[in-house]
Amino acid sequence: MSENNPTLLISNEQLARTGSPEAIARYLSESLSHLNVSVKVLIQKLPDSNSSDRKRLWAICTCHYSPDASLIAEPIAQQLRDLELDGFKEAIIRAQVRGEIAPDWVLQVDLTRTEEMLRDWARWGDIQSIDRLLNECLAPQGLQVGTVLKETTLHIFCAWDFDQVPQSDVPAKDNTVASIQKILENLAPQGLTGATIYGVKSPELQGFIPHESPTLALDHLRDAPVWVHWLELPAATDPYLAPSTTALANQKNRGALTFLMQRLLNPDIDSRLATGGIRVKLCFKNELLHIMTEAVVCPRQTHVAGTIEEMLNSLNIVGVSGARIYGRRAGQNAPLWSYGIDFESQRPMLEAAETDLIAVPEFQEVEATLTAEEMEVTPEETLSGWDWWRQMLQRGLCATHLFMGQEDDPTPTILGTPAHRREEEDNHTVPIALIWGLLGCLLTLQVDWMGRQYFPTSPPVQEVATEASSPAASDAEKKATQAAILAAARSNNPSFNNPLLEEKLALYQARVEQSGPPDILIVGSSRALRGIDPTVLKEAIAERQSLSPEEAAALEVFNFGINGATAQVVDFVVRNLLTRDQLPQLVIWADGARAFNSGRPDLTFEAIAASEGYRLVEQGRFPQGQDRLYPHSNQFDFSLGAMSEGLSQGYQEANRWFTEALGEFSALYQKRDRLKSWLSSQLSSTLPTQQESNPEEDPQYPDVELVASEDIDRDGFLALDLRFDPDTYYQSHPKVTGAYDQDYDSFALAGQQYEALRRLMVYLNRHDVGMIFVNLPLTNEYLDPVRSKYERRFQNHMQDAEDRYGLVFRNLAKRWQNRHSYFSDPNHPINYSLIPILLKPSGLLLNN
Fold first, then answer.
1. pLDDT tens, residue by residue, 79-128
2. Based on the domain organization, do 446 and 502 belong to the same domain?
3. Do residue 439 and residue 291 come from a single domain?
4. Cα dihedral sign for 182, 187, 193, 199?
């Protein structure tokens, strides 16, 4: 590039922000090309709008096979919203297989600009939205603010942004008040009658987090404000703005009620701005309130239904005797789930309302049609080799009469098959099904007979574990470990979609049955799993408190650490998997700020919540004698959701019975593991080998920990002989900064994780079980400025929890920042260096 002819390189994202369809298509293709997805973008003016700034964006994604909507919905939504397109109301993503006209799935994305979404919530008095708007509007002037809401008064603390204006004085009163007054009068927040504006010094506002304070926390400031100004807001004189949002919701105000529900379902404002969050649509019909919730990924019923039900019970809306809650993916017409609430025991009325859902116009998506030329991304091509073979395979499958090809018919029936075609097929369906079913049974019997000859019956397995050579372990320890492993193998516990959790639960149950509940239970994530060895902890306690050999031998400690465990996981394990007679005397929770981030997806807990074991816990069927997670009324629920769940449970029981019967009848079924291994070895020998990737080296999955090659001991501890050396560690591991660490994504301490801590502490206090929370050490390589900021917020939060709930908070985060040999990686401390610190002050552990 010459100096006289400079070239300006513009990225696809910058071009896409201009609203060019071709640029937007190239921008989306950057993230979809690896899926072989072609993208075409069209712009359509909405039919119900006369203004030029209400448009719809179509993104037609064509591919040989349709990708799962749940995999690409949020990334595409975030990409489109990041563009901040002007004049667009929504985007419709159509995914369709190449050569077909009907879409495989449709997704709707809200393209309302970020500022407009913030103003909409701020109009209803949302404190976080007001705080965000004030900071964004005042940032060009070098100002930063913190806001606190107390009753109907907004308290605003103003200071210079220390990063932009490094000075300790306060901003000028007149200019600051004028700027804030203009913003607040334009917003006119509902129910807020006045604002008190304070001028403070910049260092005072550092670390002052007013929006997390339930009350006006002026005592957090070391010095008094330099100046104070009172500002009257429009709600003080306007009778329409004077009532609070909650009061309007009680009067069936749809706007206020919609805001309260959306705010409750979207606690993390950053996540809502990124993808559009969970949207709510309301409709009052007779005495019923219909509530439709939708998002780019269908909202979970367990999260939405209970939250809205609790809010409606507290509101007590006049003239509403029941509610119906639905959930769907944005862009769908039919809900994926429904949930009924009856305030006055009028179930027949609720059931009748469900059949009228289709007639509710507020819940119907705006239909729009495109011509075939518009939907076609690429011209029709001659069949390639793969397409030709695929077509031949389709014809072969259709020739068996078990499969039916999809025809393009302008008048399809309700089942999607032309009427004349269905009449012809109905005459042959039953005989063909019987013939093929008989052939399938004969083939199954033949394979079972051949498998019986090939895999002879093996002798019964002796219940003796193979002893591994370990010179450091005694025979007694080996036998105890073997007994625990055998107990885990023989456990009848249901699956929780977490093998480590299942193994530890079986070990814990075996330990309790053998010697009673432990004195100390260690919980947490992999940092606790690797960081605190129960054996070393027992030895240290015995030495410090001069216990006799008999007392030391009687001391029991168990490590229940689980990879990726959050506060929700710990709460679920202690409150719902352990019965009351299995509770310890003391719980040591060893973890850090990441376990309390309510802003990021809790993948570990979501996997557990989707398991068979979690369902049994909810129903009160596991463990025996434990209360249900969510107790319901004794009345039978005739809703479609409850009936569907009952049918699903019946199907699972029938499937379990059939599986047991098949195991008794079939000889090969009992050897299915050997058959699977044999088939795997035969197939793998014909395929080229591929070097397996190490998930620990993938920066996208920082929480994944490999334990398949390691075994936990009988106390639940996982020993790893590793030492952290920055010079060699980062040669094989990427260095991920806090700004890009998914564990701190949308960092928020107020939410479901902190609520889990509250529930757990109430439960432990009720049963006289002590709690020590240990904020584990971190290296200076890990504690960059971003993580340090979140760490300070977390420590303040836990100190408040210490005063409120009576737990003991031990802050060791900065104990050994420069002693890298005390760690196995940047954020996992080693057990031997940690134990002495846990025992200070002397006797703390045993006295709890």
1. 899 898 888 888 998 888 887 778 888 889 998 899 999 999 999 999 99
2. no
3. no
4. negative
Q: Mention every residue, 6+ apart, whose C-beta is less than 8 A from residue 518.
A: 511, 512, 556, 557, 558, 584
Domain count, the chain: 5
String of DSSP letters for 752-788: HHHHHHHHHHHHHHHTT-EEEEEE----TTT--HHHH
Query: Which domain, by its residues, includes 173?
Result: 115-236
Whether 236 contacts 193, CB under 8 Å:
yes
Q: Which tokens hold the place of 580?
A: 């009351």
Three-class secondary structure of residue 539 per DSSP: helix
DSSP classification of residue 575: I
Average pLDDT rounded to a whole number, residues 609-621 = 89
Is residue 590 domain-shared with residue 508, that is, in the same domain?
yes
Residue 801 belongs to a domain: yes
The DSSP bridge pattern shows strands 88-97 and 55-63 to be parallel
CA distance 504 to 715: 9
Question: Rounded to whole angstroms, what are the CA distances from 495 to 498, 626, 651?
Answer: 7, 17, 18
Indicate whether 348 belongs to any domain. yes
Which strands, in side-by-side order, build the sheet including 194-199? 143-150, 153-160, 194-199, 227-232
Q: How confident is the model at residue 166 (pLDDT cuts 50, 70, 90)?
A: low
SS3 356: coil
Q: In what order do the strands lie in the sheet with 337-342?
A: 279-285, 288-295, 322-329, 337-342
Bridge pairing between strands 194-199 and 227-232: antiparallel
The pair of structure tokens assigned to 634 is 């004794």
Please tell me whether residues 397 and 514 are part of one structural domain. no
Could you tell me which of 686, 705, 678, 680 has the C-alpha nearest to residue 694?
705
H-type helices in 519-597, by residue range?
526-531, 534-544, 549-554, 567-572
- Rounded to whole angstroms, the Cα distance separating 176 from 197 reads 9
How far from the centroid of its chain's Cα atoms is residue 293's Cα?
17
Same domain, 30 and 120: no
Q: Is 748 inside a domain boundary?
A: yes
CATH code for the domain of 48 = 3.30.70
Co-location of 624 and 528 in the same domain: yes
Domain's final residue, options 111, 128, 154: 111
Q: What is the number of alpha carbons within 13 Å of residue 111 lying toward its C-beta?
A: 24
For β-strands 322-329 and 288-295, DSSP reports them as: parallel
Cβ proximity of 210 and 178 under 8 Å: no
Q: Which residues contact 532 (CB under 8 A, 6 or more apart)?
A: 522, 559, 561, 588, 590, 717, 831, 834, 835, 838
Asked, for residue 471, whether it belongs to a domain, the answer is no
Q: How many other C-beta atoms are found inside a 10 Å radius of the C-beta of residue 11?
A: 12
Six token digits for residue 437 = 């079913």
As given in the structure block, the two tokens for residue 146 are 């913190």
172 DSSP 8-state letter:
P
> Residue 775 in contact with residue 809, Cβ under 8 Å?
yes
Amino acid in position 625 = G
**Which backbone phi and psi does 28 adopt, to 5 degrees?**
-70, -35
Q: Hunting for tokens 């002397």 — which residue is that?
A: 842
Domain end among 179, 205, 236: 236
DSSP 574: I
pLDDT classification of 223: cutoffs 50, 70, 90? low
Q: 612 and 717: one domain?
A: yes
Separation CA 484–CA 446 (nearest Å):
41
Cis amide leading into 534 (omega within 30): no
- DSSP per residue, 684-730: HHTS---PPP-GGG-TT-TT----TT----TTS---------HHHHH
Tokens (6 digits) for 600: 């990021």
Q: Which residues are registered as beta bridge partners of 228?
A: 198
Instruction: Give the distance, in angstroms, between the CA of residue 302 and the centroid of all CA atoms in the same chain.
Output: 12
Regarding whether 768 and 620 lie in a shared domain, the answer is: yes
Q: What is the sign of the dihedral through the CA atoms of 613, 619, 620 and 621?
A: negative
More confident residue, 415 or 392: 392
Judged against a pLDDT cut of 50, whether residue 461 lies above it is answered with: no
Domain holding 572: CATH number? 3.40.50.1110
